[in-house]
Amino acid sequence: MCAKGWEETDSETDWDFHWAEREWVYEVFDSMHLESWQRLNHFRNGKELCRKDLLIKNLKKHKRQLEKDGQYEEATQFDFFPVTFNLPREYALFVEEFKRQGGLWIMKPIGSAQGKGIFMFSKLSEISDWRTDYRFKPGAKEKDVEAYVVQRYINNPYLVGGKKFDLRLYVMVSSFSPLVVSLYRSGFARFSNTRYNSDPGEISNAFMHLTNVAIQKVSERSE
Q: Whole-model pTM?
């Protein structure tokens, strides 16, 4: 017997609340019927918002739908993310944009964390090794190529003390329709270990450009 009268069960279907790993939810419960009273700690198909490539796909899709419905003013509010493409599927579109605008770009694996696999570049020739390493060749099957998102890099970021940072805030979404969100009062900030500058020669300096703790904790510099 648990607190407040709850009882633990071994049943796969007869339960009121199930605390499960996210991947388990994706693999099992996304295709399983739930009764109206049953609750999970994750929403079904949450990767549509939590995976980089699917998030940008849905943001673009929603903006297009707003424009299609004539809600142009609301559609203009979707300018909070940089120009982004999903690779390899949108590689041709990316190259077209790159040749038109150039500039500094950043690539990120769609499903990795802790800054793994992220790199920056300013010339198409600088991703030739990536194209070779990940078998990005004509005729290659998309499922055989590691997917990335590529984004125009924001080279004039907001800084605190001359350093890049990000905020980690915690929210609980108890409903999508209607949308009900509770914001936890406390959060924290993560900072880069090196002061930021836009020198093109520093684009490979992860300690300047990325705020991931897994990267910053191995830096030998401290300012």
A: 0.79
